[in-house]
Write the structure tokens for this entry.
Amino acid sequence: MSQSQQTQNLTLVQAVRDGLHTEMTNDDRVVVMGEDVGKNGGVFRATEGLWNEFGDDRVIDTPLAESGIAGTAIGMAAMGMRPVAEMQFSGFMYPAFDQIVSHAARLRARSRGRFTCPLVVRAPYGGGIRAPEHHSESKEAFYAHEAGLKVVIPSTPYDTKGLLISAIRDPDPVIFLEPKLIYRAFRGDVPEGDYEVPIGEAAVRREGTDVSVYTYGAMTRPTMEAAENLEEEGVSVEVVDLRTVSPMDKETIVKSFEKTGRAAVVHEAPKTGGLGAEITATLQERALLHQEAPVERIAGYDVPYPLYALEDYYLPSVARVEEGIRNAVEF
């Protein structure tokens, strides 16, 4: 960001809209498509006003057919366009899974580089908003496991716009998961115009010396709050916001751990097979001799995502994050 660049005070969902508008203005190849994204502006109003400005040809209301949305977008991307396909909720993406992993992720390799797939699939994801079934899952590990896909999960308005612009400009497919719990939870300064936040680079949100805590998305806020509370107890917590879970910034992860020797991972996805296990394995492989305690995984439980009454028990709370960090420090 240049010193002369003006800023706006935006929520995370407004930063999504601003990023889309910026790239649609910059590049005529960028189109937005999905259920109710046009005149209605999307279920969370992330595309509000774009249809009025850019019209039917570039803001396309689709049928309720996720496989069709993804398949159409893949064809458009292969032919040189830059589609941004919205899935109304990440839990609705499963009908499109075959298109995403069998075609979008493999197109470059399958064609030996003759074709690429500059596609962004956006989806609100995660829990905490008292939504019904299929609206609150946190299944980022599905996509991080697939070679050929990048997976981005922002936690601030600034990063949201910058990462979305980077995703749209990327020559390969990007799954862009937006933590809807914090869509309107707070505001942050976002530069006007275009700028990029690099995909694949984590951010150290808080420096510390006693323990490294790795997190992303909506869990960044309770993790930061827990770190601040523990500071009052004399525990110095470093918080690393991954921002991109594939490719994962293993250099930053390891560098932090080499400094502290203790670690915890916080994510709302189920514990088993979650990205916390990948982070733990990375620390074992690359920094074992620095390790002072077992890595704590503070995560969702290995059960179907619960409905309203139990939702607050399922998601990692500030208190549960604090307890996990203490376990790592006191071992």
In short: The mean pLDDT is 96. The first strand starts at residue 7 and ends at 10.
